[in-house]
Amino acid sequence: MKVDLAHVEDAARELYIRALKMLPPDIKAGFERITAAETNPTAQRVLATMVTNIRVAEDTDNLLCQDTGIPIYNVTIGRGVEVDGVGLKEAIRRGCERATREHPLRSSVVHPITRLNEQTSCGPGVPPIHIDFDEQADRLLLEMVPKGSGSENNSWLRMAIPAEGIGAIKAFVVDCVLDAGGKTCPPTIVGVGVGGTSDLCMALAKRAATRPLGSRSPDPEGAALEGELSAAVNALGVGPQGLGGDATAFAVHVEIAATHITMNPVAVNMQCHSARRASATFTPDGVRYGF
Amino acid sequence: MAHHAFTMPVSEALVRALRVNDTVTLEGTLFGIRDANQIALYDQGRTTRFDLRGHAAMHTAPNVRRVPPSKQHPVGYAPLCVGTTTSARMERFTRPLMEQHGVRLVVGKGGLGAASLEAFRDLGGAYLAVIGGTAALETTWVEAIEDVDLDDLNPESLWKFRVRGFGPLLVAMDSHGGSLYAEVDHLARGRREGVLRNLGVK
């Protein structure tokens, strides 16, 4: 299958706007679940406002949140897909710029030292474009995540050591949720990376935070940790917006990678309640949009 | 738990009457402040022609559309999506915002810290929580962008919005030392030990 880069550019544009306006069904279902279980009256009101906002955004064709985030694109290229890799990255960047200018969207991206905003949502190294490959024949998957700064500003890495054991990982996650308080716009998805190198560990945490609700870690140890930690952080009482309540996190997601014999790294990255993402699937039949 | 409808600007006495868990709805003017414009005002010596005395200022940088100036859009900006951002980053600006510019109410999400709570007590201010990530709803409370200053910092300009029925907002920090965030933080940290024990952490 050959992929037309003009279609990729259009999809990169469409996905940014689409992600900002429509929450995925798994997140909506997550709201139903935690709203039904919430016992704190303030938290019930906060959650009801969030659910109302989802409807208003759809009814008024508006963005869910003012924060257009740092745009992130994940590309998964299947077997038998023919695509010019350099051209693919250029097309995604052009699509991202066009979404910003044509909608228009607030460009939330600046140079880190000059603080200059190019008003394109792009800059050196941004948008990050992650490229991976899979077995799926004749399929290219383009996923878009606008990552808001409230949750991104609360990201942590700890290079724990083997003598500290799994306890260090568990305590670290609990302490990150306490330190985040209301700043990350809870209820969040708490993404936890365990293992790898320092950079891989952080990437695992981001992947975990942006994974659909209901998905489980493919590693049985990771899946067990997800269950334990989800119950633990929701026993803290931080609640929606840090104003108290049961619903501190929709879930804790864990991603695992092997690590060095001397290492025991753990990273935490959170996704806010406006857990936005959108995807486009390219097959020989055309482009299909989803989440 | 009283509800207050404030037509802006308001007096110190009205703000001092607010108590944590009260609710407030704002009418009239709401200013938009942000990291960059407060750095400009309080670190870089820039000034604004806006009179913020007695007003509410929300931590925000909105999505806007440039349009031809008109009666509805006097400075050529239409609001597209107006919401709030995490307040904690701007903690150190609360006191100068109140002392130098006379702001009475800070609107934001996630709360402010001890220094802001002191400023609210000393100077007569309060923090009103708007729900983060619910900008589509909040935008329906914004009638127009009436004016803008420091616009070279766009989108972190100093914005002047005209609002109608902006709220209800929750009084989360008051001038009497009350802070829901400090309460919740204290409670959550108090549960830490038990939570870790249940996780088998020694």
Strand order of the largest sheet of chain B: 2-3-6-7-9
Strand order of the main beta sheet of chain A, please? 2-1-3-8-9
Give the count of structural domains of chain A: 2
Chain pair sharing the greatest interface: A-B, 56 and 53 residues
CATH superfamily placement of chain B: Fe-S hydro-lyase, tartrate dehydratase beta-type, catalytic domain
- What structural class do you assign from the helix and strand content of chain B? alpha/beta
Q: Report the principal-axis shape of chain B.
A: globular
Unreliable spans of chain A: none
Mean pLDDT of chain B: 98
For the terminal residues of chain B, how far apart are their CA atoms? 42 Å
Mean pLDDT rating of chain A: 98
Task: Sketch the topology of chain B as an H/E string, one letter per element.
Answer: EHEHEEEHEHEHEEH
Overall number of domains of chain B:
1
Inertia-based shape of chain A: globular
Would you list the SSEs of chain A in sequence order as H and E?
HHHEHEEHEHEHHEEEE
Number of helices of chain A: 8
Structural class of chain A: alpha+beta
Helix content of chain B: 25-40%
The quaternary organization reads as heterodimer
Give the terminus-to-terminus CA distance of chain A. Answer: 23 Å
What is the CATH architecture descriptor of chain B? Alpha-Beta Barrel
